[in-house]
Amino acid sequence: MEPVITLDHVTKRFDDYVAVHEAHFQIAKGEFFSMLGPSGCGKTTTLRMIAGFEQPTSGRILLEGHDVSAVPPYRRNVNTVFQHYALFPHMTVRDNVAFGPRSQKLAESEVTKRVEELLTVTRLTQFKERKPSQLSGGQQQRVALARALVNYPSALLLDEPLGALDLKLRQAMQFELKRIQRDVNITFIYVTHDQEEALTMSDRIAVMNEGRVEQIGTPEEIYHAPATVFVANFIGVANLLPATVVGMNGQMVVTLEGATRMEVTAAAWAAKPGTQGTLMIRPERLRFSESGKGLPVTLWAAAFSGPVIRLVVKTASGQEMIAHVPSDGPRPSLEPGRQYIVSWDADGARLLPPKPTASPIDMDLRPTLDLAIQPKSNPVA
Question: Is 80 exceeded by the pLDDT of residue 195?
Fold first, then answer.
């Protein structure tokens, strides 16, 4: 598809600190594109360069084919919604939204039409005569969104705009944002550290880490086929095990824990017999049983989580893993301290290039799981 935004080997330095390193990708017309990563990864700096609030140290930024690297923000056909609302306090909601098209000297009938459409899709019609001080934080954020959209820019840049909303409204607005984006067919470039937001709304996601783009792909590609250990660990929960390639048998065969042989889908990178890598398996792809072929583990803890029970298990070497089993389906009796077997289909695991990483327990689950081991005499039936 025709690109709206092109980053051509863009680097941004602040003195000796490299905030963005060699960003090189295109964002298509009508695409919902998210930049996802932890704080300090460079995603907001990249967004600010696209908006014109920062200039690249090297490289070019193209907007609809024109180099805008040195063009000031007010001359770029993009609008930005930041975390702070910056609404006009003396104006009503309707007048705040109408400010842009009125500044462009549009006919009042066109202004009214656009404003009413945006107030409807952002669920603000009943509040249109109120001042910003009479609105909640979430309502003010929606006013800012409507005001940015009403001029139909080439691209709308959003820097974590849903952060002020409560959980239910934030989840509802994720679908609203995607619906609005499809209706107006405007490119959305969305910055977030929230995986759920990125996976729910995006056509493609750029995962960033320490100023570098680690992977760009669809939500399905990012989740099921991460390119690096960082991406696997940052998106959802990933079990990461040291593995050694021993051969091919239709699928790639690896050894785990020194002896257990398992099949995995062939790696996209050059992995020959003897190559060491990191095996990634999502918790929902693990099968948990009392016996059979697979990796021996010891149950460490079990936590009820609605539709699934989340299990913490340890391998013989002490490696912690997470497994999900259905809370109301067939499964073994769960006794902490007892040995079980975990296994998976070959297409449920992915071999990644090796890289030191924290365990998934340390990064994601320890704050949310009750890890107190139940007495063996009180199994989870």
Answer: yes
Token readout for 355 is 């890289």
pTM of the shown model? 0.83
Pick the CATH number of 3-224 from 3.40.50.300, 3.40.50.2300, 1.10.10.10, 3.10.290.10: 3.40.50.300
Rounded to whole angstroms, the Cα distance separating 368 from 276 reads: 32
Mean pLDDT, residues 175-195: 88
Nearest 5°: the CA angle 144, 86, 153 is 45
Kindly report the CATH class assigned to 229-365.
mainly beta
SS3 323: strand
Q: Is the pLDDT of residue 361 over 90?
A: no
C-alpha to C-alpha distance for 145 and 147, rounded to whole angstroms: 5
Q: How far is CA 213 from CA 36, 42, 59, 230, 352, in A?
A: 10, 9, 15, 11, 17
Residue with tokens 């005001």: 147
152: part of which helix (H) or strand (E)? none
Q: CA-CA distance, 345 to 293, in Å (whole number)?
A: 11
How many other β-carbons are positioned within 10 Å of the β-carbon of residue 269? 11
3-state secondary structure of 16: coil
Distance between CA atoms of residues 381 and 369, nearest Å: 19
Q: What is the DSSP string of 237-276?
A: --EEEEEEEEEEESEEEEEETTTEEEEEBPPSS---TT-E
Tell me which residue has tokens 């017999």.
273
